[in-house]
Known about the structure:
The chain is of the alpha/beta class. The chain has twelve helices and 16 strands. Helix content is about 35%, strand content about 25%. The protein starts with 5 loop residues before the first strand and ends in a 6-residue tail after the last strand. The model has no long low-confidence stretch (mean pLDDT about 95).
Amino acid sequence: MNSRAATFLYLSQSDVIKCGGLDMTMVLDKVEEVLALRDRGETSMPDKISLKWKGWDINSRINAMPGFVGGKCNTGGIKWIGSKPENPSKYGIPRASALIILNDPETAFPICVMDGTLISAMRTGAVTGVGARYLARKASRSVALIGAGAQNHTQLKAVLTVLPGIEDIRVCDLSPERVRTFIDHEKSGNPGLNFRGTTEARDAVEGADIIISATTTLKPIVRAEWVRDGAYISNVGNYEYEYDVVRKASKILADNWKAVIHRKNQTAARMLMEGELQEKELYGELGEVINGKRPGRENDREIIFFSPIGMGIEDVIVAREIYDRAESQTVGTRLILWDEPLWV
């Protein structure tokens, strides 16, 4: 082929799976790596752009999430992800769909376009999982999942990967049908675990070592008096915790405080904007803990509140690993952008 031709690799979701897209251990390690790189200043990430238009509800959007990751990854890219909460009930299709594009930093040409839906879900779960590595009690035995949607599947997968001693899973959702569907799916892959479903958040949260919330709620679900000493809390979704839950925490962290505040809708962000929480009360970011700049959990009584926001650099580093595996395994379809450039 002409040396001036431009080609790129296309990877479908099945290609991504062939190349390790469901390997949570790999995704956890890559997410931890990129959080450490970001703390060292070796990544670049403009603000996320959220596209909405007239007639869409508040939770519907298409996000553009660009990022460059240095280190061994040395790759730029972008995730283009649409989200429509009514898709499952209205059309029987997933809420989210995504594409990831990777670019060669030498020429800025695209080198790969791949399904990003799976990667996005896996890396979102992995952020909570990396947090659990450093912030949860090692002897944690119980997990409360607030929300029985697709996202909590990978949240659970990540926590079970880093804390294999987990025994008890409580699943809470307003829909008993969603709870049953979620538990039926997870039981098949985790036969040794005890699952319990509920429509009441208190039933799930009281006594839980780990609390993970992934919902689209606009009002708090979890009350402070339900949270046990030593709990690790991951506020993946929106305004799911009353302010006293955050006030009760010994340490308040995020993966990226600037992005959390920019998004505005998580509990800690609301508190900061309303003056109910001061920046000096924030413990720091997870990357600082990973790099040893700040200690993570220091005792079994600390309640630690974590606000993961999700970043395009996480998608890029995982996608780059998938791309490298695809190239070495000859997986995917080579597509031509042009045989000969029209202009130079």
